[in-house]
Every structure is written in C-alpha cells, then in structure tokens.
Input
Amino acid sequence: MATTTATITLSSTDLLSDELALSTTATLTQAANSTGLTGTTGLGRKKLASGHATYTLFDGDDYTADKAHKLYLKNTSATASEYFEIIVNSEQIGRLYAGDWAFFPWMANASTNDIKIDPSANDMILEYMLLTDE
Amino acid sequence: MATTTAAVTLTSDLMSTNMSVSASTTCMKAGTTADGLDQMEYGYVDIASGTAYDIIGNTPTASKASKLYVKNHSTDETYYVSVVLDAQAVGKLYGGDWMFIPADFHDANADIEITATGGTNKICYALFHEGTTLVAS
Output
C-alpha cells in the first residue's frame, strides 16, 4: 500500500504574546478506511490568462464521487496583488495570493463539484496536484 | 507587523520515484508584502453527529486574504465532517485529516459550515484574518 503524508506547520513568534507553533501530519487514506490513497495527477503547472470566465481545473464527473480526494494548489506569482480565485462549482472559496498555497479535501460530486480557477492577471502560473481515492 | 508562516510538505511513494513537494508562505494581508495577517481565532470543539455548525462565528471582512486551518482530531477513520460553503459541498475531512484554505467570506452567506458524521467529531481550527464584523451584544 502506498503511503502519502501531508504535513502542515503554522508558526509565528510575534502574532501572539506566546509563540505559535503548530505542526501536524496526516496520512492520507481512502474514505472511511485505513488504505492509502491510490492515485495522483502528479505535480502539474499551468499558465493562465486573465479574462477567461473561469478555468475548470478538475471536472467532478471525471473522478469517483463522494471520496477522500485531496487537492494541493499554489500560486507561484511573486507579485503581491495577483491572486487566483478558487471556486467550487460556482461558489468562491477564497483568493490564493502570490506565494500562497492551499490543501483541502474534495468530494468530486459530479458536474456540480468542479474545481475552477479564475486568475486576476495574465500569464499567472498555478501549481497543482490531485491525490485521488480510486 | 506579525509574521505567520504556513508550510506544507507532501510525501508519497505512490509513483516509481518518491515524491516530495514543499511550499511555505508568509500569511500577508490581501495584496501586500508589507503587512502580515495580525489577528486570529483558535478553537477546539466537539461536534455531535448530524449537527451543522458554522465554524467561524464572527464573519471576517469580505474578500481579504484570510486563511483557515481545520483538523479533524477524531481517531476513528469512519468519522468525518462535511465541509460546505454557502450550500456548496467542498469535501469530507476524515479523522486525522487537515485542510488549509484561503477563505474570502465574500458575502453573508459564505460561512464555512461543517456537519459531523459517524459520531462526535473533535475539530480544531484556526483562522488568520485582518478583521471581523463583531456581533453586537
């Protein structure tokens, strides 16, 4: 069985009067069992132009619905004002500003659960990877 | 300026070559490199099965660069919380899983709602933001 882990570290020495140091690791498994995730798109990279309504990065119809897929996204831009709007179906999740990354579960519930990206400027580069459950 | 760093490392032996992806970002206010996110909420809650719960009570200022961390501390692999944003299902966070997303709370309906399944789920969360609309007493 493949073993895939995701570790996050959140740290700050000056946000609070006490130091913030949070680190946790998840071993990524299939929905409701302890078997590791079995697939991945690998790490990908896309250059996207602004002005397009939205780009569909992953189509919910293409993956098994209602599973424990995980998605990693990163905005590689170095221009602080540039962001990607992350959208699920038609709902805005949040803005991924320059250098920011995101990691979250995805249900892939048919065509109403597409992952879409809307860049704020031309030729922005998105890094992404989908880890799939079946 | 507060400096808060969020780092991620993904490792896997899924492929014929071991994979390791790392990224780190300093959590800044929207559109700037001069000023970091300087406010946070942090909590740990038990959520009974079947209960839908807005994980953030005070809505942060809309369309900013807020960051939300959520971890399901449940140890039973069949337990999960469904993550929903304005009635749009996003994903299921199973026991042991965590997530980290930008959250722009773009309108009053854009709350982040979680619903527990399987049993009482233990959820830890942290929101880094640049201001909230406080609820008047």
